[in-house]
Amino acid sequence: MNQNHDAKRSARERLHAQRAKDQARARRSRQAIVAGSVVAALAIAGGIGVWASMSGGGGNSTDNESARPRQASGGDKPAIPVGALDAPSTLTVWEDFRCPACRQFETGFRPVLHELEDSGHLKTEYHLVTIIDGNTGGKGSLRAANAALCAQDAGRFREYHDVLYAHQPPEQQDKFADNRHLLQLAEKVKGLPSAAFTKCVNDGRYEGFVEKSNTAFAGSGFQGTPTVLLNGKDLSKEKGGRFTAADLKKTVLAANKGKQPGKPQTPPQASQTPETSQTPKTSRPESQPATGTPQQPQPSASPS
């Protein structure tokens, strides 16, 4: 009798587990249909990939709405400039520190970006957003962005920005929500750790600045991150979505022909690939597209 009862219970458990799998598969299918129209072209073509955003939300309002980092632009679309402020070309980048496609973009384009910035040919304006916080829950996008803005006050935004992407956790692991982890990563940037930086990170001094940037992104009509514009032109739409780092360099130099390079904010530094926790399986030549694997959005969740 007991064996028969156990067998029936086991069968019910297997049936319940199978139904749960079927329901999860159906949910993923519905999400893929919704997001497919946004990312299909880039998924096929490669190039600058995007993390599709259906909500664009994330984070709560803070008490530091008026705080602004050193040399940051204000207005409705606040940004951090990197490179020569008077450079003849401007690259506008909207990105999220938890976004896998943003990491792919930064990894593939970083050497060329640093070269163009340090030579005075390019100013990069970073707009930091919190898409993944809004779509999957958590605070990692917001707190990592705040920490990066704190690094801007110390003149170390670019270095810390690169370290954050080099140590980006898996999308579903909200490791950047832990300020202690963000402070540990700051130790990889010479001259960044300080009592002032620690206080800025723990106080969330620039969270209001980040949320204002995220609000601007949500109302911009852009479909996902990274969104990359060169002198106002969306690069994901160039060359069938296969715009490479080599193309960027060629296009910037052509646009700047006959123009005087700007003066970098700081003396050029040797561009180095940040230390990473994993060794890349293969290296990507400059002429190969930096592809980001489009991610399917999850239903919005309240940040933890």
Automatic annotation (TrEMBL):
GO molecular function: oxidoreductase activity
Keywords: Disulfide bond, Membrane, Oxidoreductase, Redox-active center, Signal, Transmembrane, Transmembrane helix
TM region positions: 32-54
Biased composition, class Polar residues, residue ranges: 270-286
SUPFAM superfamilies, per database record: Thioredoxin-like (SSF52833)
Residue ranges annotated for the Thioredoxin-like fold domain, each copy included: 80-237
Family, per entry: Belongs to the thioredoxin family. DsbA subfamily.
Name the UniProt record assigns to this protein: Membrane protein
